[in-house]
Amino acid sequence: MSEDWSKGWHQRDKPAGADPEQGATVPVAGPQGYGRPGYGPRGYGQQRAPWPDQPPPRSTRGGSPSGGSSPGGGRYGGSGGGYGTPGRRGWRRWMRPKRLLLIFTSLIVVLAIVGTFLYFNIDGKLARANVLAAYTGRPAPTAGTNWLITGSDSRTGLSRGQEAQLTLGHDIAGARSDTIMILHIPANGNPPVLVSIPRDSYVPIPGYGMNKVNAAFALGGARLLAQTLQNVTGLYVSHYLSIGLGGLVSAVNAVGGVTMCLPAPMKDPKAGLNLKKGCQNLTGAQALAFTRTRNFPLGDLQREQDQRLLLSGLLKKMMSPGTLFNPFASVPAAYGVAGSLTVDSGTHLLDLYGVGQALRGPQSTSVPFGYFQSTSAGSVIRWDHAKATELFADLAADKPIPRSLLTGTAIKGTA
């Protein structure tokens, strides 16, 4: 190129003598030159100098030695991790193994503290009662663990408006055992077994003679009911769990409802029940009506089966990953359910977790039915004595239950 071009755009704003590439005159400071070693040719007195020598390159920590382009960006900034990029250097400091270990350890400690606080706080919400007291003639401990699970028809805590909304009637004092079940959790790995006790079962009640089994609850509360059932089954009851009408509604609502699949519509104006055919998510009020209806040919026997299914569905929903690993679902559900339960004095939250796991897929049945009988206590259910004795003996020994002793329901539940 001509010398005119060399004085083009890159020299417009430069004073004369400011382009060492073209050998321009170097300004003189002192006798000759700037007096700075390395600025200009070796020695002094030269008026034409090449481009001054550059300082040695600095370490770039990921950039190119010359500060040029690199995958991470330029040496003096850009979006990448050059020497002068504080963001990338800060990120690398946080990614060091020691810092990661510290963060992880701190997170575990925080979660442990929060988890411990929630556990004891929720455990403290459980209502406790001295139900399983020792008495003369109590069966010796048997294999596995046996839970007495009851659903009381107590209206305690419900307003008159709630009673009307749930079709429960008014001015019904006291409490009766509306649902009675025994959950057997074997110690040898066999499937758990959930056994319904029809509330009209005709059994001897200590101190009161023969009567319906739910009369034991009305006469002497949960303690007399537990004593009665231990005597007639021969099973040692280890734990007690009870939930009232209002508690069931709160528990179902707390987990977002329970899904039931019905083979046909279910209607019962007396229970406030009106469900369509097929799978549907029951609210707390609908679940309560579902467990109370006796509008079946077999009446109480079918209702017992449906109650087992609903209880399994409720606890299965509580133990599902969608609830357990979602704190916005699990914590409110745990608080809602815990505040609705009454347990024996030796039961804690961890024990209830075991119940929830056992009820995710238990074998279920009712005490083998014998016949109906009219008595002074009304129409009652008499057990098949031989089959009932076999059932409870197998449970006491942790033996598998014969299929002939297992009964189901046409209704299906899902998680």
Write the layout of secondary structure elements.
Layout lengths: L2 H4 L79 H9 L2 H27 L3 E3 L15 E8 L7 H6 L11 E9 L7 E4 L5 E4 L3 E4 H21 L5 E5 L1 H10 L3 E5 L3 E3 L4 E3 L2 E5 L1 H9 L7 H19 L2 H4 L2 H12 L2 E4 L4 H10 L4 E4 L2 E7 L2 E6 L1 H12 L15 E3 L1
Parallel strand pairs: 1-12, 2-7, 4-13
Antiparallel strand pairs: 2-3, 3-4, 5-6, 7-12, 8-11, 8-16, 9-10, 14-15
Helix pairs in contact: 6-7, 6-10, 7-8
Descriptive overview:
The chain has 415 residues and is of the alpha+beta class. It folds into two domains: 67-123, no CATH class; 131-414, LCP protein (Aminopeptidase), CATH 3.40.630. Helix content is 34%, strand content 19%. It is built from twelve helices and 16 strands. It has helices at residues 3-6, 86-94, 97-123, 160-165, 213-233, 245-254, 284-292, 300-318, 321-324, 327-338, 349-358, 385-396; strands at 127-129, 145-152, 177-185, 193-196, 202-205, 209-212, 239-243, 258-262, 266-268, 273-275, 278-282, 341-344, 363-366, 369-375, 378-383, 412-414. A seven-stranded mixed sheet has the order 1-12-7-2-3-4-13, with helices on both faces. Strands 11-8-16 form a three-stranded antiparallel sheet. A two-stranded antiparallel ribbon has the order 5-6. It is elongated, with a radius of gyration of 40 Å. The N and C termini lie far apart (83 Å). Mean pLDDT is 74; it is low at 5-14, 16-26, 28-45, 62-83 and 170-174.
